[in-house]
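BUG: 3D viewer hangs when loading the predicted structure for this chain

Environment: internal workstation, default settings.
Expected: structure renders.
Actual: progress bar stalls at 90%.

Input used:
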Amino acid sequence: MVAGAQAHEPQEQREALEDLEREHFDHYVLALTWHPGFCASRRQPPRECRDPSLMVGADDGFVIHGLWPSRPVRLISQGVSVSEWRRQGCFLERPRPAGDFCQAGPAIDIGSSLEQELDDAMPGRASCLDRYEYAKHGACLSISDDDFFDGALALTEIVNAGALGDFMRDNRGSTVRRNALIAAFEEAFGRGTGSSLSLQCGGSGNRLLTEVRIGLEAEHIDDFPARKSFAPVDHGRCPSRIELRRF
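C-alpha cells produced before the viewer hung:
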C-alpha cells in the first residue's frame, strides 16, 4: 500500500468497528508502533527490523502493536487488579505456554485477504506478535481473531489517513516538539483529545518515539474518530523534543 492507503472502504471500516463494540469492559487501548523508532531502540532487533520486506508497512505511518481491552467485569468482581490484568491479560485464565511468542497461542485463523493486509500493517507477525496479542488480549473476551484484527486494521487506517498520519510522514527523520505531536493529534481528532494519547519513547536518552497509545471507549468504538469514542489514558514519559526516526 502507498502512504495513507486504506484496505477498507468507509462502510467496511464502520462494520469492522461495530464488531468490536462491547459492554463488559470499559475501554480499549490501541497501541501503534512507530516502526523505525522501535527498531532503532532495540539492542537485538527482531526479524521485522532486519528484513527490508517487513519494513514497507511503515511507509503508511504507524503499524499495529496491539489492541488492549481493559479488565472485564467478571474479573473485576473476582478482585483482579488493574496491574495484574495489564501484566497477564487472558493468561490469567489460560496460562501462557513456555517459549517465545510463537508458543503463546495457535496460528491466527483469518481470511486470506485480511491476512495480506495484516502482514503489511503488522510487521511483528514475523515474530508471531499476532498470536501473542490475540492470546493475551482477545481470546478470553468473546472477540474472534478475525474481528480483533479487522478492527485493529480499520482503526490504524483511520489514524494514518488523518492529520496525525500526515504529521508523522511529513516529519520523519527529524526532531519535533512533543507538544507539536500532541497538537497534530488534536487537529486530527478534536481539541482536548490529547488526554487520550500516550507517547512512548526509548533509545539513548529516551528520545526516540517508539509507540503511541490511544484510549477508546468500548461502547463507542464504532463511532471512531468522533470525540465521544475517546477514553483517557496515562501520559507517557517522552521528553519535550522527540526524534522521529525513518528507515
